[in-house]
Amino acid sequence: MKRYFELTTHENQVWNAFLNGAVPLKYAYSGSASITHARLAASAGYQAANWRAETETRIVSELLGSKANKLVEFGPGTGDHSAFLLNHSTIKNGIEAYIGVDFSRMLFAHALPKLRKSMPRTTVSFVHADLESEPAQTMLLLNHPVVFVSFGSLLGNVESPESTAVNIRDSVPRGSTGLLAVSGCPLELDTKQILKPYESEEFRLAALEPVLTLGLKASDVSFDLKWNAEDLSVNAFVELNQNFTNIDKDFTVPAGFRAQCFTSRRFTPARLENLLNEAGFSEVKITASIDQSSLFAEVKT
Question: b vs e for 45-57, b when ≥16 Cβ sit within 10 Å of the residue's Cβ?
Fold first, then answer.
């Protein structure tokens, strides 16, 4: 597979991040990485558990009701999760317009046919945005309050959950209601169980793709996973097995250099509630699964 960045500016951004010790996860969803992520999303065990899907469907159905006919989704990814929920609910019948907001146009191209199939009577559109940096330019399409959702664990996969939450709030009109789903921290914490979904070859290749697109080979690096108990996060690291020289930029990265290439945070109900209150949402209600492995925040801007 030919490797490439989605935008020419991404190469320097990834190089700078790599040399500074941590590559933001958003680059693992764009360019050729959108293909490796799509393969990961199709692998066994990637999709959320049935309880989570059922709960999301119930909450979004209640939020939508008859008070909004536009649905904004932040981070639809490959669209598999969203299409599943829409196909197993009645909410699609009340949606006249769906707006997907994502960092990667290429990843949304994977989602588009699935979303259109699940909502054949709905106008589906896309807005490109880097929610870690600024709000999405969705206000131009929205005149009234809407329902907005994030079915994936978007807030757990960004460098700054705090700024991302603020930018989500500022991407929709005041008075909008939403559902933000994240991965929780199980009451009976089992580190091996938490790391298990990330130990597949599909995951390793997906996490490494932005680094490999810089010109490194998989054989040039070692890859390992760690659980950070203090930050409640799963982290993946890449370490150079040998010197790597970038001829175009005239520098060498020494053997033993180590950088983070993946992070996924977990939240406790209190931590999530505090994050969203600090972000300025006017109302926040947290629902948790029985073991708290999945959390759902119903919010209002």
Answer: ebebeeebbebbb
Cβ within 8 Å of residue 200, ≥6 positions away: 40, 43, 45
pLDDT at position 43 is: 63
**Global pTM exceeds 0.85:** yes
| 3-class DSSP string for 105-116 | HHHHHHHHHHHH
How, if at all, do strands 283-288 and 294-300 pair? antiparallel
As a whole number of angstroms, the distance between CA 6 and CA 27 comes to 9
CA separation (Å) from 229 to 140, 189, 190, 291? 42, 10, 11, 18
Domain ranges of the chain: 8-45+190-265, 50-185+268-300
* Partner residues linked to 150 by β-bridges: 180
- pLDDT tens by residue, 74-106: 998 888 878 877 766 556 566 788 899 999 999
Class of domain 50-185+268-300: alpha beta
Burial class (CB in 10 A: 0-12, 13-18, 19+), 263: buried
Q: Alpha-carbon distance 49 to 46, whole Å?
A: 9
Cα of 43 vs its chain's centroid, Å: 17
Is the pLDDT at 273 greater than 90? The verdict is: yes
